[in-house]
Every structure is written in structure tokens, then in C-alpha cells.
Design brief:
The protein is an alpha+beta fold and 549 residues long. The protein is built from 19 helices and 14 strands. Helix 8 (191-207) packs across helix 9 and helix 12 (260-280) packs across helix 14 (333-364). The chain starts with a helix and ends in a 5-residue tail after the last strand.
Length: 549
């Protein structure tokens, strides 16, 4: 019996050892195929790259919150300066990072048809709101929606909405001025919070036709949901990261980028507003009205299939032979809601980020602020008490230069992304060629490019003179990639710049911006945030300007 028991024990141990070996072997094999073989991707193609760190890829310092993502990408950009492009592992996804500006232009403009889409993939059937947003659309559907929406963002349409912005700015500035009462004529304010309220209210009135004052009603639904929507430090930031890095997995898991609560709120607001306007025949110069018009319009096409805009031109040229009307797409209610909501998202977060950095630069560069205030005062004198007009604002060259330099130094979007839609060949400086396949991802490191000393001497210096239009400027405006480049650039960029410039016109009319005791200078970026943001906030002292004697 003892012998039998011993043999049974031996056999059982052998079986367990075999199972253990199989398990270890399976794990090792899985690790090889999922990690080791992937890490050889760029080496096998002869592409310069930095050895990745296990499953975290090249972003481990950012993911472990040791450095901000812009610092990680900028270090690699400088390391591989002798190459037009280099490899980057986004977790286990190989990405081609394009660092040569001429190659960027070639990819995004000349060869745009090879890089039509973003990497993000949202299922419009599962996520009917954000899956239908312009930024998430792909291929022909994106082309059609872009063609339909483009007329809504022309200068004439911006001019129509400008009066809504100036009326709000005047009221908001008076409210801020009231906060300085009894404090010696100044108030220390956090800029991100301040400009979120500006952005929230301006987009609420320009996109949804709803009047809000977030300086008085500080917990209104638009503001609280907008803050939740754009909070990239917590769960929402992780979701953005997941949808960017694992688009197919997120689609497979059928996860939504934004909550049902947000979707229901924005759908209710937009559809209720549209219903009231249709019943009461209300016309208001805002985004909902423009989208309602876009839904009804039938675009004209020339004989080559180019869209002919309302001025009778196609791609900027007069056309003699204009073809018949054609409806590019059938709009659903969710199509309308999606465009309004994404417009809100961009106005709430992108504009507030840009404005916060601009306020900081004006406070720590008093000579720049002094010159800008002089331009503001000259315009105010010329207007003689009349409201600022769109045409007058467009003539303020130094205001435009300051805004452009802020975009250059502190772009809200650290990188642009594209997906290869059909085979394409990248060629390095030494003639080495790499074949890209459909589905390969590329990044354009906008932040690093706009801080390249070869393109922007003394890149850390805030110098609006780079963008002078009198021949003294040293910058080609096409190198400013803050809102993208080529046909897939940000369709709302003109509105965003218009909003920022209008806000600062009214702020500088009433206040002088100064460094406060809590001002962090130089700024250190918050490592927990996906988007650029100040580590200790943007604290600025607003001092009420004394009237001229």
C-alpha cells in the first residue's frame, strides 16, 4: 500500500509539475507575442526609436506621473533630431511620430487622402451623441458633414454671433469688478476657473441660445456638467486616454466616452430649443440656428464634384458651370445635438486653457501687457462708447499677435493624430523608406514643434513680435499647429480665437493683470493632467484700472 501511495504521489506531483510548466510556458508565449514581438516592431523596420518600458511603452514616466506628457514627447523629439520621423510605443501600439515640418505639411495637406481619419473610433449606434460628432466621423461621412458645417464658421457667421459675445463680456466684467469692492480695488483670481465661466456662458448663448451668468449662478447645470465633461485629471481623463490608446478595444467593449446623464441633458436642451424655435418661428444668430439652416440646405456642386459655396465659388475660384443641388446627408436629431455638444466642449475647455495661459503671460510680461492695453485704449477712444465690432477687433494687430504667441507657446493640444487609410511610404533624411499600412497611427508633436529653437528662436521667451505683419515677424503662420493643419483642422478655431480676443479686450479695458502671491512662475505643468495645465493653478491679481485724468 505504501508503494502504491508513493507512486500515486509521484504521478500526481509530475502532473502538477507538467501543468505548472504548461502554465508558465503559456504565459511566456503570450508575453512574447503581446510584448516582446511588438517591441521589435520599429527595429525590424529600421525606424529610430527608444526602447520601451514593458507594457507601458514609451510613456511610463507620464503614466506613472513622473513627468508631463509634453515633456516626454519633447525629449524624444530632440533626441531624434536627425530623423524626419521616429517610433513611439503608445502602450503596445506602435505610432510613427512625424517631426519634420515639411513632412507634416505633405501628410496633412498634399497627401491628406492617405490620412483622412483620427485614431479614435466611436460607434454612433452605441454612442449616438459623440459617435456622430465631427471629430469622430470618418471617411465620406466626415467629408459630407464638414462640407455642410463649413459655411456655419465663415467670417460672416462669426460676425453675426459677435454681438452675443460682447454683450455678455460687458456684463461679466462688471460682475468681476464688483468682487474688488472693499478689497482695495483688486482681487486674486484663479484663471482656469474664471475662464471656464466665461467659456461656459459664451458657448451656452452662442451654441444653445441660453442666457447664463456663471459668476452669479455658480452651480448651474451647464457649468457643473461642463466641468465634469472636461475634467482630465480623474476618471474622465483615463477614459480619454483609453479611447485614444485602445480605440478598437473600447469599441469592442461598447463603452461610451461620456455618461448617459450628459447625453440626456444636452439632447434635451438642443431638441427643446429647436422645437420652440420652429413653433414660434424664432430666429437668433447662434449655432443652433446655423445648424438648423445647414440641415435644410442643398449644396451646389460644379462639374468636378467640388462644393460650391454661397458666394458662387468652388475652392476660392469663380465657377461658370454649376451643377444641380445635392443633399450630402440626411440629418438626425442626434447629428444636431452632437455638433452643438462638441462645440460646447471645445469652447469650455480649449478656450479656457488658452485664456488662462494668456493671462499668465500678460501678468509676467508687463511690457507686452502695456502695449496691448494701449491698443485697447486706442480702440475704445475711437469707438467713443460704442460696442466693439467684429471688424474693429479684426484690425487689432497686436491683440492677434499676443493670441498667436500664446497658442505657439502653450498649445491646448500637445499632439495631432491621424490614421493611415491607404498604403503610404515615409522617407527619412538618409533615404531610408518605411511602408505604412492601412490602420497605422501617426502623431504630430505640435507642442514640441512649436518649441523647436530652429523654428522659433528662444522658444521659452514670450515674444508676440514673432507674428508681426509689417515684415519684422520671423514666423511662418503655417507652423502654428495649435488647431491642426490641412482639411482636418479644427473647424471652430476662428470662433475660439474670436472669443479669446473679445474677452481680453473687455478685461484689459477695466483691469491691470499682475502677479499675485500665489502665482507660479515659471509655470510647471501638472503631471496628472492630459492637457497642459499649471501645477499650482493660474493665480493672477486683477487690479481695477483708474480712469484717465
Amino acid at each position: 500500500m505504501a508503494l502504491v501511495a508513493g507512486m500515486a504521489s509521484l504521478v500526481t506531483g509530475w502532473l502538477f509539475s507538467l501543468e505548472g510548466l504548461l502554465l508558465v510556458g503559456s504565459v511566456a508565449l503570450l508575453y512574447y507575442f503581446l510584448v516582446v514581438s511588438v517591441h521589435r516592431y520599429f527595429a525590424e523596420r529600421g525606424v529610430a526609436h527608444e526602447r520601451p518600458s514593458s507594457v507601458l511603452g514609451n510613456g511610463s514616466d507620464f503614466l506613472l506621473r513622473r513627468r508631463h506628457f509634453t515633456d516626454v514627447l519633447e525629449q524624444l523629439y530632440r533626441r531624434f533630431r536627425r530623423h524626419r520621423f521616429f517610433g513611439y510605443f503608445d502602450f503596445l501600439s506602435p505610432i510613427y511620430v512625424i517631426r519634420d515640418l515639411e513632412l507634416v505639411k505633405q501628410i496633412c495637406i498634399k497627401d491628406f487622402d492617405h490620412f483622412l481619419n483620427h485614431r479614435i473610433q466611436l460607434d454612433e449606434n452605441h454612442d449616438p451623441l459623440f459617435g456622430r460628432a465631427l471629430f469622430a466621423m470618418r471617411d465620406t461621412r466626415w467629408r459630407n458633414m464638414r462640407a455642410v458645417l463649413s459655411p456655419a464658421f465663415t467670417g460672416s457667421k462669426m460676425r453675426q454671433m459677435f454681438g452675443l459675445i460682447t454683450a455678455y463680456c460687458e456684463a461679466a466684467v462688471r460682475t468681476i469688478e464688483g468682487e474688488t469692492a472693499g478689497t482695495g480695488g483688486y482681487a486674486d483670481l484663479e484663471m482656469k476657473e474664471l475662464f471656464r465661466r466665461f467659456g461656459n456662458d459664451i458657448v451656452a448663448t452662442c451654441a444653445f441660445g441660453i442666457e447664463i451668468n456663471s459668476f452669479r449662478d455658480r452651480t448651474n447645470a451647464f457649468y457643473t456638467l461642463g466641468k465634469e465633461l472636461t475634467n482630465l485629471d480623474g476618471i474622465q481623463g483615463l477614459k480619454f486616454l483609453a479611447f485614444s490608446s485602445f480605440p478598437r478595444l473600447m469599441q469592442l467593449l461598447r463603452l461610451r466616452l461620456f455618461s448617459d446623464k450628459m447625453t440626456r441633458f444636452f439632447r434635451h436642451v438642443v431638441l427643446d430649443t429647436i422645437g420652440q424655435r420652429e413653433r414660434k418661428r424664432i430666429i437668433r444668430p447662434d449655432m443652433i440656428h446655423l445648424l438648423m439652416e445647414a440641415r435644410k440646405q442643398e449644396l451646389k456642386f460644379d462639374e468636378n464634384g467640388n462644393v460650391v459655396h454661397h458666394n458662387g465659388t468652388a475652392n476660392g475660384s469663380e465657377m461658370d458651370g454649376i451643377g444641380p443641388s445635392k443633399r450630402l446627408m440626411d440629418w438626425t436629431d442626434d447629428d444636431l445635438v452632437a455638433q452643438c455638444t462638441v462645440f460646447f466642449f471645445g469652447g469650455y475647455d480649449t478656450v479656457s486653457t488658452l485664456s488662462a495661459f494668456m493671462a499668465h503671460e500678460l501678468a509676467v510680461n508687463p511690457d507686452v501687457q502695456r502695449r496691448l492695453r494701449e491698443e485697447v485704449d486706442e480702440v475704445r477712444t475711437a469707438l467713443a462708447g460704442a460696442p466693439l465690432t467684429y471688424e474693429t477687433m479684426q484690425s487689432m494687430r497686436y491683440l492677434d499677435m499676443v493670441a498667436m504667441e500664446t497658442l505657439r507657446k502653450w498649445t491646448p493640444a500637445p499632439f495631432l493624430d491621424r490614421m493611415c487609410t491607404k498604403p503610404y511610404v515615409l522617407e527619412d533624411y538618409d533615404g531610408h523608406k518605411v511602408q505604412l499600412r492601412k490602420g497605422d497611427g501617426i502623431w504630430i508633436p505640435a507642442y514640441a514643434i512649436m518649441r523647436d529653437p530652429d523654428l522659433f528662436p528662444e522658444p521659452d521667451r514670450f515674444d508676440p513680435e514673432r507674428f508681426a505683419t509689417d515684415g519684422k515677424g520671423t514666423v511662418d503662420p503655417s507652423t502654428v499647429l495649435a488647431f491642426g493643419i490641412g482639411p482636418r483642422n479644427c473647424i471652430g478655431s476662428r470662433f475660439a480665437i474670436m472669443e479669446v480676443k473679445a474677452v481680453f479686450y473687455y478685461l484689459l479695458s477695466r483691469f491691470q493683470l499682475e502677479m499675485a502671491p500665489a502665482t507660479q512662475h515659471p509655470i510647471r505643468l501638472k503631471v496628472t493632467s492630459l492637457a497642459p495645465s499649471a501645477e499650482k493653478g493660474f493665480w493672477i491679481r486683477f487690479r481695477v484700472r483708474q480712469p484717465a485724468a
